[in-house]
Design brief:
The chain folds into two domains: 1-20 and 67-107 and 152-236, TPP-binding domain (Rossmann fold), CATH 3.40.50.1220; 22-64 and 113-146, SIR2/SIRT2 'Small Domain'. The chain contains nine helices and nine strands. α5 (70-80) packs parallel to α9 (217-231). The radius of gyration is 18 Å and the shape is elongated. By secondary structure, it is an alpha/beta fold. Strands 3-2-1-7-8-9 form a six-stranded parallel β-sheet, with helices on both faces. It is 32% helix and 18% strand.
Length: 237
């Protein structure tokens, strides 16, 4: 290739679900017996931090057992071919990184890290195990999951908007485009930047001007990547 097209990929829970990670909204999801207010809000944390820690420890174990699927691997392969690939994900797992993607921005945090409950700058990797009540940061405050809870600001949102504005192509994968402010990212692309949504319900979910590709991430992403690698560009047929 004479140039390096810049693909920005915005991924949601649908891409991770194909690796066996239960989603937030699914009726059989891990959240089913855990009201959001109890385990994913600052209020829930204040009321019962031990319950919140136990919930995220359970999720962390599930994510460590999961493996990247064909969609994760295809995006990494495209990057290895010389394309510029930036991933903006709503997911808190590390499946993009384990597949080989090197430029991943986690809008909602990373479950395999802990952070201080008084200073968000103090983050600690969790290569194994979880977080227990009584484990503290360098400032002596209880450690909490490094995730963005409902009602909290999304600190990397401006950086994500900047990435989207630089895209030659925006590919949206496996998200209902229902969680704000992440869903508004599509408004930051240039008016002539092509955009596609891969999801089994893409026809119903795609905003005007967004190409709907009605299939799973595991089928749709590798097919599109194969085409782009063959062509050497990000053009659609």
């Amino acid at each position: 290739m004479t140039s390096a097209p810049h693909l920005v990929v915005f991924t949601g829970s649908g891409i991770s679900a194909e690796s066996g990670i239960q989603t937030f909204r699914a009726s059989d999801g891990l959240w089913e017996d855990h009201p959001v207010e109890e385990v994913a809000t600052p209020q829930g944390w204040r009321q019962d931090p031990e319950r919140v820690l136990a919930f995220y420890n359970q999720r962390r174990d599930q994510i460590r057992r999961a493996k990247p699927n064909a969609a994760h691997k295809a995006l990494a392969a495209l990057e290895q071919d010389g394309f510029r690939v930036s991933v903006v994900t709503q997911n808190i797992d590390d499946l993009h990184e384990r597949a080989g993607s090197r430029h991943v921005l986690h809008l909602h945090g990373e479950i395999l890290k802990a952070r201080s409950s008084v200073d968000a700058r103090l983050r600690y990797p969790l290569p194994k195990g979880g977080i227990r009540l009584g484990e503290v940061c360098d400032k002596g405050s209880q450690l909490r999951p490094d995730v963005v809870w409902f009602g909290e600001a999304v600190p990397l949102f401006e950086e994500a908007c900047e990435l989207v504005s630089q895209a030659d192509f925006l590919l949206v994968v496996g998200t209902s485009l229902a969680v704000m402010p992440a869903a508004s990212l599509l408004t930051y692309i240039d008016y002539d930047t092509p955009c596609a949504l891969i999801d089994p319900d893409a026809d119903a979910l795609s905003p005007p001007g967004v190409l709907a590709i009605n299939t799973t991430a595991g089928e749709g992403v590798p097919a599109l990547v194969h085409q782009w690698r063959k062509q050497g560009n990000l053009l659609l047929p």
